[in-house]
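hiii so my PI (J.) wants the whole complex modelled not just the main chain, which honestly fair. so below is everything: two entries, each one labled with what it is. i double checked the lines twice but i was tired so who knows lol
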Amino acid sequence: MTTNMPDLMSQTWQVHTETPPTPATSVRDALLHKFDIDELLNCMHCGFCLPTCPTYQQTGLETYSPRGRIALMKGVADEKLSIDIEFEKNMYACLGCRACETACPSGVAYGKLIETAREVIEDNKKCQGNPSFIRKLVLKNVFLHPKRVRTFGTALWITQALGLQKLANKTGFIHILPREIAEMQHVVDKVASPSKRKERRPILRSEKESILKIGFFKGCIMDEMFYETNQATARVLSKAGCDVVFVENQACCGALHAHSGEKSDATNLAKSNIEAFEKAHVDFVVNNAGGCGAALKDYHHWFANDPEWKERADSFVAKVRDANELLVELPPLSFHKPLNVRVTYQDSCHLAHGQGIRNQPRQLIRSIPGVELVEMSHPDSCCGSGGIYNITNFSMSMDILDDKMEDVQHTKARLIVTSNPGCLLQMKEGIIRAGLQGQMEAAHIMDLLDRAL
Amino acid sequence: MLTEDLRQQLISVVGQKWFLDSPNELHAYSYDATPLLQSIPDAVIIPSSVQEVSMILRMANEHRIPIIARGSGTNLAGGTVPVQGGIILNMNRFNQIYEIDEKNLTATLGPGVITADFHAAVEAIGLFYPPDPGSMRISTIGGNVAQGAGGMRGLKYGVTKDYVMGLEYVLPTGEVLRSGGKNVKDVAGYDLTRLMVGSEGTLGVITEITVKLLPFPATKRTLVVYCHDLYDAARIVEQIIAAKIIPATIEFLDQATMKVVDDFAKLGLPLDMASMLLIEQDGAEEQVMQDIEKIAKIAHHVGAAEVHMAATIEEGAKLLTARRSALSALSRLRPTTILEDATVPRARLAEMVQEIERVAHKYNLQICTFGHAGDGNLHPTCMADERDHEEIERVEQAFEEIFHASIRFGGTITGEHGVGMTKSKYLHLKVGEGGIELMERLKAAFDPNNILNPGKVFAKRDRHRIVVRQS
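here's the output for the full assembly
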């Protein structure tokens, strides 16, 4: 169905000239009121964000820059521009990497602004009964339903286990998924079998005297596509002195929904998670996916207008830690297997720009005997993965990735280490695109630590 | 508005991809870094060759369509706001460094090269291009040349105009001209190169630039001086120069600026101090250390509260980077940040700082002052809210007084940002009516139909089509 995918998928966007039906004034006012005018005005259009924005670097176009997008939001909020398909294209052309927030001296909360803009777009579409195809497919039909996420994982496992992937690509499977998903699909690691998953016990006890009881936030993509990485993370934490609880009834973090304007879905998922971890009575909520972690740490902002949930979210957020963040606070790990490998570290945007966690993973990597860390020139510039960006904006994502791989190759590293599933998939894709299979691999930092323990 | 016929002709010059005119695209090129100004262009064209520029200019001239050349749009004087509509000519595809000539110590490059990228390229081979405007990480060399940009190293090394040796530029007729070149000495006729520098896109469109380079200084050291009052800081600057030391940089920050910069960069500055100076000296190791020690002595002698040498080059660089973010960091305080660049001979610095304080008090405004103390170039920065029209009115009155004061002290209305739209009504204060008339006659010689960046520099002759105030 590649040929008749909606324009939303395409980099060469066709601007639709017909004006969409204008929603009734009161509805439109309600939509426009969602914009935080003070925050929009806080942007003084100095342009300091431009050199850090991957899409501006690719295009050189103001509409593809954070400053430009904020100007467009302001234009919509002031009713100088309409909420049309062009505005939608521009708001979704953003990776949401938030590198601009790190660069912004005025402290503009760009991540929140872009989420609001997307929320306005999606709400506007709902008024017109017209949800976008790909996001509906991915977000509504898969991530909202844990069972379906599992099915998605199982389907991938079956395809791989039966060696059907190549065949599928040649024959029919590629037509089941959109081209962009299918192209990304071949980078997925061997997915754990359903029987293997059943072996997971609800608690992994600390290997030494227990210091902490932590609730492990599995993440939906992580646990399906990188089940083994989750297991490795649990092992590393248990060796560092944690009792690791696989908390029951946890859900997707809701990040992808929030980034895509599906705010109410996102808050429902957040409520499930807050409840699940409250019941587990743990010291910390630990995750190993930068994207999920940034969302989990943001839950209190999602309930700004709901005092009861705000309070519960505050206590939840206070306990959230990225695995890297927690590990450097614990007694040092004792490694037994030197790895003798040159690695480079690709920052997860939502770990570095979203949570300010840059040194911790590097410190952990350097602590492994035999590992030499060589930095890229722009390690904290997005790899182009951007949640589902590599599905919705495939060709821009690949252009950014190709530049990233050039940067990687200058380091002469054999291993690209990341700390987020989206980045990991993207780097694996990058290795294939650069023709470096067999010479270079990509690994999650927790897998790397686990290998050396 | 462009006729459909002209639109098609322009598209045939650059191709559909580089001709933008959808509502979002026009909106995204309606502003630069100047507060309060916005105006929608009719089209945005992104050419890639001098031939394309020449054809576009000829067509625009024929149809009397304004042409506003720009780079990254970081100027602070409204210099690239298309106030009369027309075509934004975005020059950022001219981003090649054509040559770095190590024998002649020159570089030839396109106007779209990012200033900091150019720094990195020449520094990689031990050379130095000193002009370093505050926005250098994203500003383009073309923009720097057109606006006559300055920077922090002006005191010792001069500013952009002191480095431009040659230009290629296009006139509205489509003629492509060259001026200057690699010769250190060249007095063949009028110095058209110097005329183009700082002409703010009103005389021609610059398509190639040749600049002078220097050897990269062996080392540099940064000294931080904190003072209990503003005038001590100004006196220290005067005394350093009087002792015949020319540091590369002397930056000044008042207390309010220190607070916001510290909040952004987390430097742990002593916020009970009234002001601070960041002094950097570069050159040969021995000379640098000698100068820095002398400066420290002078600072103590004049009455500095605290003098501290950055332990490493990196620590010094971090301090200066923090200073670079002052303007943007100040914008955290209030929604609208209006900054000017009134400049005085440096011996009048203390008086000027005092005058700015008086004016701020008179109009009940919050004005923070920072700037390049070494060259007398101050940045009084006013925090306001553009939604409060009465307050904005007071801001305008305050700046008018500040401009008059700087002229009274023998200074100028703009040291490094350019006149653009924001200072055109004060230009006569500096150059006189006769000066303006002569400039207008020069302008008419280059651009008789007034298509090049109309509405800038000269206040009177242009009818403003539309200025959309952001609300």
